[in-house]
Every structure is written in structure tokens, then in C-alpha cells.
Amino acid sequence: MRNIAFQLTIALFFISFTKGIWELLGINESMVQLIIDFIIISIFFISLIFITQKKSMVAPGFKIISTFFIIVVISYLLNNVTTTHLILFLRKFFIYVIFFYSIINIDFNEIQKNNILKLLIVLFTIQVLAAFIKLIVLGGTQEKIVGTISVMEGSLATIMPLLAISFLISMYLFKKRIIYIVYTLLFMAIGLISNKLGILFYIFILFIILTFLYTKKLTNSNLFNLPFLLYMSKIGFYLVVIFGLFVSLNPRANPENKVGGSIDIEYLSKYTEDYNTLQLKGSRVEADGRADAPGVALTKLSNGGLFNLILGYGPGDIVQSSLLKYENPLLEKYNMGYGARLGQVWILMQLGLLGLVVFAMYHIYIFKCLYNNFMSNNLNQEKNIILLGILGISIIFFMDFFTYSSQILYSPGVTLLYYYCIYHGLTITKKEII
């Protein structure tokens, strides 16, 4: 049964990372998602066999996620949302949590894990190739089409390459080979070709945090120690080169608005500030920029009363679906624009401050478990590289959730990868399973 679950997981990653191709071929996005849901449910039923045989269930953070589920139910019962809203919310969000708890109880053997890793390397490599093909065929930057993973979710052009870059940074830190910096530039090209600036900012943060964790592992020091400063001075050179190339090649980032433009820090700073605090002239829409969105959401919840502030407007209230009345509920119901796509706003509007806090606690707990695994175990270099890369993916989750988008909450390719990496990181110290 473990082998069947392994084959289903292989199929799951292949379908989710080629979702854009299926959509271009005319297969409805809902149908692709239905297939993904069916495969996850199949894996879940297989996991029940393992749980029954062992008479126990492996469930890290289960009390916290159960509390979150109770909040979902209470918010549903006390708000004006239908059962359809609830089901759509559970399907969109909890299906991936089910995947996580299913595979951690099935627990693949080392050969299967290595084969999944090889598949992911191939799928990520395809994303880079697809990005350059898109540039050649379409003759310019296109935001919505991102590799083979999506034709409609432009934010993935920032989040998806960052997931690969996290492992490349880890490999560079442990192996000190410049080729991993070159690979990083290739994955950054996905964001560049889709005209995204955010990836530049997040790479700087990711480099700094992972370098700190790496030196902390080596020196067991809690402060910004000498090895960290030495590593950062060396890495700083590469970051400056990356910054210069990206700004010059991204039309959004330079004053000439062209590929090969000049590097103007003042222009870039003003553009970034204006973009994140955007308010279109003459528009009554609020939260056009990301920086304003959390405040706007809190104001709207407060206007609804203390109850809405604590428990939101109900699960599924802002879920987009053809089964519901509104095509874009955030805009049509709450007059909230582009900036409201933040993951924290998505949870906040539906489940209030209580739901947001408990949800954050769950992922902080997961990060803490991964961190303890990385710091306390005497692992070989390969496993240390994997664990540091997974810690980076956990950091990317928080950066995306609080500052960028909601893609990593429910976009199949990156969300499945996030939960699979958590599983791999939590079980990496276990002995081989036969």
C-alpha cells in the first residue's frame, strides 16, 4: 500500500506542476483541482490502513490545527454563510492539511523519498525552461503565465522560484560552489520574465536568515557572530551583483522602463513604496496596495462588531467559486482591491483575529520542530542541506502569508510542496522503513 501511495504522490506532483498546460489544452481548472482532490483523498484512505495497523497516529501540531478547525465550525454556525461556503473553504484549505497528515503516517522509505526528490528537481528545471520559452514565443514579459504551473496566478512567479532557491542557498552554504549562485540566477529569471520585483527583496531576506541559521548550527551562537559576518561579507558581493542585474533587466525597476535600464536606487525605492501603498486616483476601492490591506480588513471587521473582529465573516465568505454569487467577493462585497490578496487577510476576513492567531501558531510550531531537528541532530551533510532548505521554505511561507499573497495556502503545486517538505523535514532523522 505504501508503494501505491508513493505512485499517487508522484502523480499528484506531476499534475499540480503541469496544471497550466492542462488549462491551455482546454481542461477546466476546476476539473484539474477535482483530480488533485481525488488523489489526496485516496492517499488519505491508504493512510487509515497504516494508522489502523499501528494503532496510533503521527500528528504533529494536531491539537493546534484541531483548535483552528473548531474556530472554523463556530464561525460557520454563528455567521451568515451557507454549507456550500463551508465545504468550499474546507476543500480549498484543509485538503492539503489532510495530505500532510496522510503521508506522515504512511511515511515513504528512503528510495521513495529520493525518487520524489528527483521528480521535483526535474519539475523545477522544467519551470526555468518554460519561462525562457515563454519569453521567446511571446516576445516580452508576461505576468500571468508562470512556467507550466499556472496561466492565471502571476504571484507564483515570485513564490515558486523562491522554493527552489531556498535549497540552492543551502547547497551553496554547505558546499561553497559558485554554480549554485548561477542556478539561483536562473530561477530568478522566472520572476524577471514575469516582471516581478518582489523576488529580489525576498532573496535578500532568505540569504541573510539561512546564513545566520547555518553559522548558528556551526558555532552554536545566538548572536550575529564572526563567522556569520564573514559569510555575509562574502555573500554580499553576490547579492550586489544579483541586485544590479535584476534592476537593470527588469523594466519595472529602472526609470527608463526597459530591459538594460540604469540602476537608480531612489527611483526603485519610490516605485516600491508607491506600489505597496497604491490608491488609484478616482477609485473608491480600498486596499489597492498590500501595505494598507491588513488595516483595511481590521477596520471592516471592527465595523461589523466585536464578534466579527474575533471570528470574521465566516469560512468561505470570500472564496471564489462558480457555485457562489460573487465572482470576486473581496471586491464586490467589501470593496477591497489587489492588495487584499494577502494570506493573512484571507484568513482574517473569514475567521477573524482568533483564527489568524491560531493559524499562525500552528505554522510557528511546525517551524520550531524543523528548527530543533536541524540544530539538535548530528546529521550528514546531505540531510543538513535538505533541512536548512526546508527551514527556508517555512520562512518563505511566512513571508508570502504576511506580506505578499495567499498562493502557498491553496495553490496546488506550491502548497503540496510546502506540506511535503514539512513531512520530509520532520521525519528526516528516522531510521529506514522497510
What does this structure look like?
- With 434 residues, the chain is an all-alpha fold.
- The chain has one domain (2-277, 341-427).
- It has helices at 2-17, 19-24, 29-54, 62-78, 83-106, 110-138, 156-175, 179-193, 198-219, 226-249, 265-276, 293-303, 306-311, 329-334, 343-376, 381-403, 407-410, 412-427.
- Helix 7 (156-175) runs parallel beside helix 9 and helix 15 (343-376) packs antiparallel against helix 16.
- The radius of gyration is 22 Å and the shape is globular.
- The two termini are 12 Å apart.
Please describe the topology of this protein.
Layout: H1 2-17, H2 19-24, H3 29-54, H4 62-78, H5 83-106, H6 110-138, H7 156-175, H8 179-193, H9 198-219, H10 226-249, H11 265-276, H12 293-303, H13 306-311, H14 329-334, H15 343-376, H16 381-403, H17 407-410, H18 412-427
Order of helices and strands: HHHHHHHHHHHHHHHHHH
Main sheet overview: none
Shape: globular
Mean pLDDT: 85
Quickly count the domains: 1
Count of individual beta strands: 0
User: Level of helix content?
Assistant: over 70%
> Which strand-content bin applies to the residues?
under 5%
Core attributes:
mainly alpha, 434 residues, 72% helix
Quick overview:
It is built from 18 helices and no strands. With 434 residues, the protein is mainly alpha-helical. It is globular, with a radius of gyration of 22 Å.
